[in-house]
Amino acid sequence: MEVKQQLLHEAEQFIYTCYEELGRSRDEAEARLLHIRYDIEATGTYDHTYEELEHGALMAWRNSNRCIGRLFWDKLLVRDARGASDATEVVRELLEHMRIGTNGGKIKPTLTVFRASKPGQPNIRIWNHQLIRYAGYETDQGIIGDPISLDFTNACKDMGWQGAMTPFDILPLVVEAGGRPPELFDIPEHLVMEVDIEHPELSGFASLGLRWYAVPMISDMTLEIGGIIYTAAPFNGWYMGTEIGARNFADTFRYNMLPQVAKVMGLDTTSETTLWRDRALVELNIAVLHSFKKAGVSIVDHHTAAAQFKLFEEREAKAGRALTGNWTWLIPPLSPATTHIFHSSYDNRLVKPNFGVQDKPYMSRQANTASDTVLQQKRQGCPFHSE
């Protein structure tokens, strides 16, 4: 199908659905499509109204097959930052997103949309996977910090950034806009909310020195609405506890803390039959949930999240919408068989609007392909709940 025809087809599908859900008439949708057809024929693209942009972003969350937190899809705050043209303006909006989304710990699901990809114009790209993330350094003594950040940390160092070489250094923002080379910006400390991890009963747990940032703000995915691709549309929900306790801290290719937690607990690690990993994993997750709640930061446990997803399933059925989902991403990484999701099956087809993966600008094509393969194997998070 010719490019313009394909774009018009995508626009028609979106506009009809969007306007129907917004309570607008068929005549209004047809009138809007007349303008869109004219714009596509004249320029090869079209612009969304704010109403279309907002509802399209909400639909994208609702359609995110990997996300267990979709019950709250219609509570998303959508910020229109399409007027930002250079890196400084983009970063100003990103910092404001951090402030609004963090909300003093009472996390507000927020999405900020920058200018869409257009023919003949350079795209806006945010190089960070998450707006706030910890650096990773490869040393002769092993990796310091988060191993998953090694490539991006090296890219930042190549641009002149230097971290303090601690396990929890906040990486800078790297933004590419206006056809200029990528620019690097440090994040003001007051915008980064972190939680010190302690255990409600194990006094020795605090000696591990663990902490984590309060809000997962995914910043390198595309947002596609009606055939229009937004290459920079960062968004956040709040954490499900297992994403930190059973993945970021526990995975052997991340912080790999289970052996140290087991040592604090005095567990016998000489044999797998003692199930020391399982016992340490549970206590690590208890510590994460306890610490976030003590700090007044929004978080959800995996049992509550699964119950919320069940309610989402029921509401979608009542609305007459077919539910889609990716079972391998929806099941929690801790005690999945205790949730209804484990015993269910889901249609994993792609429904648009939706989010998509794009190549990392700081990695080669071969490295991006290898990274995507590893990403699938390791089940790294989902759009509004990510590692």
Architecture overview:
The protein is α+β, with helices and mostly antiparallel strands. 37% of the residues lie in helices and 13% in strands. The chain has eleven helices and 16 strands. It has helices at 3-21, 26-43, 50-62, 87-102, 150-158, 241-248, 258-265, 276-294, 302-318, 327-330, 365-378, and strands at residues 77-80, 110-113, 125-126, 136-139, 142-145, 173-176, 183-185, 194-196, 211-213, 217-218, 222-225, 228-230, 235-236, 239-240, 299-300, 354-356. α4 (87-102) links the parallel β1 (77-80) and β2 (110-113). α1 (3-21) packs antiparallel against α2 (26-43) and α6 (241-248) packs across α8. The chain starts with a helix and ends in a 9-residue tail after the last helix. The model is unreliable at 376-381 (pLDDT under 50).
Structural class: alpha+beta
DSSP strand tally: 16
Order of helices and strands: HHHEHEEEEHEEEEEEEEEHHHEHHEH
Distance between the termini: 38 Å
Return Rg in Å: 22 Å
- Oligomerization state: single chain
Q: Which strand-content bin applies to the residues?
A: 5-15%
Largest sheet: 4 strands, mixed
Question: Roughly what percent helix?
Answer: 25-40%
Report mean pLDDT, rounded to a whole number.
Answer: 95
Strand order of the largest sheet: 1-2-13-10
Describe the structure concisely:
With 387 residues, the protein is α+β, with helices and mostly antiparallel strands. Helices cover 37% and strands 13% of the residues.
Task: Walk me through the topology.
Blueprint: H1 3-21, H2 26-43, H3 50-62, E1 77-80, H4 87-102, E2 110-113, E3 125-126, E4 136-139, E5 142-145, H5 150-158, E6 173-176, E7 183-185, E8 194-196, E9 211-213, E10 217-218, E11 222-225, E12 228-230, E13 235-236, E14 239-240, H6 241-248, H7 258-265, H8 276-294, E15 299-300, H9 302-318, H10 327-330, E16 354-356, H11 365-378
Parallel strand pairs: 1-2, 14-15
Antiparallel strand pairs: 2-13, 3-6, 4-5, 6-7, 8-9, 10-13, 11-12, 11-16
Helix pairs in contact: 1-2, 6-8, 7-8
